[in-house]
Description:
Elements: E1 4-7, E2 10-22, E3 25-30, E4 35-36, E5 39-41, H1 48-60, E6 65-79, E7 82-94, H2 97-102, E8 112-117, H3 118-121, H4 132-136, E9 143-147
Amino acid sequence: MDINFRHDHKCFNLRVASVIKNEDKILLSNDVNYYTLPGGRVHFGETTEVAIKRAIYEQLNLQVKISKLLSINENFFDYEDDEYHELLFVYLCEIDDKQKEEMDMNKYSRKNYHFISFKEILNLNFKPEFLLSDLKKVTNEITHKVNK
């Protein structure tokens, strides 16, 4: 069961996202209208670390290694008729070279996945935009952001 709930057009999500790099490119998923980092909702009773590993395996059939937690984000936004309050944990993750060679990113998922350079990402409809700072530079500190 996902940790999310809705009441009177107010919604809460607990989500995870991954930054997976291949040389100077970052893996993004593409929905019809926007690009985002791969990830998903956390299940009840699941840690965020287990959740990111599960989500990437379910979406791409890849085993990831977590390098570090990059940021914890409080995100407030409207989507369609609903107001959202979301907690988002972003992890820097790695896949080994063998998986990179063998990966067929669009075989296991309904979404499209692409490795895209940071420069190109700046020209895309990337959501949520405040995560661009996580992509631009990886620091040794965990950042906490509030996007309201």
